[in-house]
Design brief:
heterodimer, B: alpha/beta, Protocatechuate 4,5-dioxygenase, Chain B, 8-stranded mixed sheet, two-stranded antiparallel sheet
């Protein structure tokens, strides 16, 4: 019997469940390797070469090279693991969040300061505001 | 005998730690947030707890996908602040309370909660930011800490009811420890926030405030909240609030609310803070 996924109809959200954790295992473990400075240095010196050491799919590698965070989420990346990539790029969580929403960082910051994204219209796919 | 005298709920946003570490707590952006912790900083200086049982989650720091313990209790003599990708925070080493930690592990496992015993673990912002919020920037933390890490990152994560009941088991365990110790339990993380995907930035102030309203006197209602409600209403990372229910369960039936603070935003997150005194 398939596992119940009541969160499948939450818009713009990927829940890191067992299916995603399996799909993204090597992608996320690559991210963990960036916790060490020597690995960060090697990655930034030759990103393609460093990624070739990991048994990741070509799609996953392309998403990393393009810093396509929504793409990485869809391919099994978890945001706390992916954070190692943008941290090693010297970027903040707020920068990464704005990128994933398609907003400029300034617009995203302004939205947060004025109370954040409202839940109204964002609970279910197709929910009316 | 050891006593659990009080509980604290507090968010653990990494950027709060950065604001403290860089001396930026008085700026227009941060001052309203930090002002809400002034009460607690004075209060805790009088309370002088001996041990903090600090419930937090590891953010892919000590635990990669190699091992994902649902509940992990730190039994080591000490814990180093972790390098989370940009060097460790400039905060003191965290001193453990191994005798009490091992006692709690033994007692709680015998109450049917399968804890993972951890003897070597670095601790990330989830643990060190709340310490900085309450104690500022001392040369040495004035308290011993038992790190208690809850998996709220890789699903399935424990539900609120299980966390609440685990808190009760922790209370039984601490109260059966012979040494005379003043123990506080802290529940950290939350409140509403989503860090990923096109819905990132979601904040639900109304929901958060109803959660805080019910924490002291209606914890049973909160324990019934299913995962999907946290995700839908408070964002994918709002699930961290189940950790506050471990704290609440550990305080016994009757508690008094001493202080509350709520502020939006810290970076991507709604910050909640509450101080509860155990009455029983």
């Amino acid at each position: 019997m398939a596992l119940d996924k009541p969160y499948a109809d939450v818009p713009g959200t990927t829940i890191f469940d067992s299916e995603m954790a399996r799909k993204g295992y090597h992608l996320n473990q690559f991210c963990m390797s960036l916790m060490k400075q020597e690995n960060r240095d090697r990655f930034h010196a030759d990103e393609r070469g460093y990624l070739s050491e990991w048994p990741m799919s070509e799609d996953q590698k392309q998403a990393v090279l393009g810093r396509d965070y929504n793409g990485m989420l869809a391919l099994g990346g978890n945001i706390y693991f992916l954070a190692k990539i943008f941290s090693s790029d010297g970027k903040s969580f707020q920068y990464a969040a704005s990128l994933m929403t398609g907003m400029s960082e300034d617009d995203y910051k302004a939205m947060m300061v004025s109370g954040g994204r409202t839940p109204d219209g964002n609970r279910y796919i197709g929910e009316k505001k | 005998m050891a006593r659990i005298t009080a509980g604290i709920g507090a968010s653990h946003v990494p950027l709060i730690g950065r604001a403290i570490d860089t001396g930026d707590t008085k700026s227009d952006y941060w001052k309203p947030l930090f002002d809400g912790f002034e009460y607690t900083r004075k209060w805790i200086a009088d309370e002088k707890p001996d041990v903090i049982f600090l419930v937090y989650n590891d953010h892919a720091t000590a635990f990669s996908l190699d091992m994902v313990p649902t509940f992990a209790i730190g039994c080591a003599e000490e814990f180093q602040p972790a390098d989370e990708g940009f060097g460790p925070r400039p905060v003191p080493t965290v001193e453990g309370a191994p005798d009490l930690a091992w006692h709690v592990a033994q007692s709680v496992i015998q109450q049917d909660f399968d804890l993972t015993i951890v003897n070597k673990m670095d601790v990330d912002h989830g643990l060190t930011v709340p310490l900085s919020l309450m104690y500022g920037q001392p040369e040495k933390w004035p308290v011993k800490v038992i790190p208690f890490a809850v998996n709220v990152v890789v699903y399935p994560v424990p539900n609120g009811r299980r966390c609440y009941n685990l808190g009760k088991a922790i209370r039984n365990a601490v109260q059966s420890f012979d040494e005379d110790l003043n123990v506080q339990v802290w529940g950290t993380g939350g409140m509403s926030h989503q860090l990923q995907g096109p819905r990132a930035g979601l904040i639900n102030q109304e929901w958060d405030k109803r959660f805080l309203d019910r924490l002291a006197d209606k914890p049973e209602e909160l324990a019934n909240i299913p995962h999907i409600e946290y995700i839908r209403e408070t964002g994918s990372e709002g699930i961290e609030m189940v950790m506050w229910l471990i704290m609440r369960g550990a305080l016994g039936n009757n508690v008094k609310e001493l202080h509350r603070h709520y502020h939006v935003p810290a970076s991507n997150t709604a910050v909640g803070h509450i101080v509860l005194k155990s009455q029983s």
